[in-house]
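Q: I'm teaching a short session on how sequence maps to structure, and I want students to see two examples side by side rather than one. Could you give me a first protein with its sequence written out and its structure tokens following it? Keep the formatting plain so it prints cleanly on a handout.
A: Of course. Example one:
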Amino acid sequence: MRIVSLLPSATEIVCELGLGRELVGVTHECDHPPFVRELPKVTRTLVPDDAPSREIDGLVREKLQSARALYNLDLAVLENLKPDLIVTQALCDVCAVAESEVTAAACSLPGQPRVVNLEPMRLSEVFDCLRLVGEAAGIAARAEEVVARLQARVAAVLERTRSVARRPRVALLEWIDPPFGCGHWSPELVRLAGGVEVVGREGEPSRTTPWADFVAAAPEVLIVACCGFDAARTRQDLPVLTSYPGFHELPCTRSRQVYLLDGNAYFSRPGPRLVDSLELLAHALHPDLHPLPAGLRPAERLTAEELGLALPARR
């Protein structure tokens, strides 16, 4: 089978299912596992990666309002790849080629490849997506085995969380400029990890959120995991975050419980690494209870200097 993936999380799902050898084309954003970076690219973006966060947000809003595509599908490359299966999504217009464009392209290709749309809003639905891709690829039994392994890891976190005596108030920030409260599966991950998400809404889309809502929510822990940004790129926007009114009075800031995580690798991709995201989050919230999984870097706890806190004078 020849498989083309039209979003990074689908690429990770395909590879988690052991179908990496069948993967013949990916998007310009696909970067995990590392070997997929060498595969032919079937998309390109119209949004510059190096633009400031507020400019990226403005461009995205402009294109969505004008119904113009954020991504271009390279039909010539796609046709040359001769896919049997195309895996895409209809969940978020920001994240991938529009569903209608994919459907039209598939209908124009010889043999009319099967198109599988992934639309998860919760962690359980991400597992359903693995099953769906497995069924489409003819490996349903293998997919069940993969899902069972991932569910076992989630169950282990949940079992440890049952002993948590006090759950901290948590806000997971998906974008800094402007602020976005988290949604979809992220509030669920906070709950499973032993926290209480005080801004995001479980099973609903993430949304632009007035900073005053974060101040009013008074989170004891702030997790910064910007959608599509790695930790280094997110760190560039920390001066914007620390300049917001009331930031230095938040409980999480005063106690230095502000953490930075790679939002590109974790949280924003509804694939198998959401389980990694859960384990990283659980370790950040309750490090004495949840061990850090082997091979994963812990969430970065921001320093007093990065938070803009006054340092004690030297004597």
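Q: Perfect. Now a second example for contrast.
A: Example two:
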Amino acid sequence: MPILNKDTTLCISLAARPSNIGTRFHNFLYDELGLNFVYKAFSTDDIEGAIRGVRALGIRGCSVSMPFKQAVIDLVDEVEPSAAAIASVNTIVNDGGRLTASNTDYEAVAALLRSHAVDPELPVLVRGAGGMARAVVAAFRGAGFGDLTVTARNARAATDLATSYGYRAVTGPGPGAAVLVNATPLGMTGADAGTQAFDDHQIAAAQVAFDVVAFPAMTPFVKAAQATDKQVITGAEVIALQAARQFERYTGVRISAEQVARAAEFSRAG
């Protein structure tokens, strides 16, 4: 990587609980490609001030995580369809003081449904009703899936999310479905690490298991699905693809699948 200098382009992330995954992903590729960029993670209790800083200081790119994904919408100049479709932003690009927002989580989920050739005729059950669940449900709707059910602990949130996209919501564990999607923290490193997002009967009846939890990639849900030979899409794929889309927006450099894989492996090793 070039020595930091006055011409180094800064990209950042803003999150309540910053991690090193995005930082390592982006800086790995800057180094490999010899780009005069640097990426740094931040937290803030003043999101309006932070976004003013992005604009005023010429910060090129800004990744946005919870709890700021909705709050930044009114602070940017343009909202692309990927973010407008779900009223949630995870990426801001600064072009000479003009801020454009998008959502590469939505783009990543949509791309993975295509690359894994998931049949839109299959019934889908999504667990969760938060920001990531909204990206998931919107991507399934955009991909033409007609039969989708949302289940979540918060019945009202589940109903609001489902009806927003013409789907239905249920309470409890939900019905069996050919495509199971976990859009909750269940299985994530920490307090929920040992929790399987769907029960064994649901997994046995399914064809596709999709878990958005990125760390660890091998959640209890993913392990159970792989043990019964289901088609599996992991959160590691989601986070790598969404970060790759951000990288390309920030730098203008297209990267190969092999480069994405190397950066993703490096980001998860730290």
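Q: What should students look for in example two?
A: Point them to this: The longest strand covers residues 9-14. Also worth mentioning: The two ends are 18 Å apart (CA to CA).
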